[in-house]
């Protein structure tokens, strides 16, 4: 990311998101673990990954210029850097709101961004990323996994994937630093999974409805066009995709 930033590769940890909080790490540094004993996912789920085959790492970011209310733009930058990376390897991906990366209807990457701040702007943000790189056999309990290897029919060099991601992330982060939210918003929208396509969604009370994604607000709210023509905005946790 920046001159002097490093990749620390370790054998085992609880969660790389925990390591990345330590003060020895600086903006742009990456902690990559071969094995996580307590890998975390979104919505309180755990994250498991086949040892030696995938990438499980956390990137340290210090966007001290970014108002807390605009933290979604950071998620956009990270998700876009990932789609840029896969494009380099010939894999077409989409971003499933808020920030899963999909190939077709299957999940390739999970992202867990954890922020810390004391004032009106962000302090340290840890972007935890799990990429299925070379894994070909998955736990049947997982709903819809895919890997780069399954998508492309070949294996990949994990260091090369990580280096590509660092390069793209630096470019996307530079947009954020320049205040170019419009480009991030435009590109994120263009790569959204199920953009404009009717799809079932579930509300926290369990009820289902069908709607089509129209876009996303800079605050991160999902804009859904309902069958009756109304446009409504939903925060994370207010609505969930129903996996077919
Ligand atoms: C999700 O899709 O639920 C998010 C998964 C995020 C997994 C990554 S692996 C590296 C980092 N460390 C963690 O404990 N979680 C993230």
TrEMBL record:
Is this entry keyworded Transport?
no
Please provide, alphabetically and separated by semicolons, the GO molecular function terms listed in this UniProt record: biotin--[biotin carboxyl-carrier protein] ligase activity
Q: For the region Disordered, what residue ranges are annotated?
A: 1-21
CDD domains, alphabetized:
BPL
Determine if Ligase is one of this entry's keywords: yes
Task: Give the matching Pfam families.
Answer: BPL_LplA_LipB
Organism superkingdom: Bacteria
Q: Which InterPro entries match?
A: aa-tRNA-synth_II/BPL/LPL (IPR045864), Biotin_CoA_COase_ligase (IPR004408), BPL_LPL_catalytic (IPR004143)
Cross-referenced SUPFAM superfamilies: Class II aaRS and biotin synthetases
All copies of domain BPL/LPL catalytic, residue ranges: 1-177
One term under GO cellular component: cytoplasm
Q: Which UniProt keywords apply?
A: Ligase
Q: Under which name does UniProt file this protein?
A: Biotin--[acetyl-CoA-carboxylase] ligase
What organism does the UniProt record list as the source? Alistipes dispar
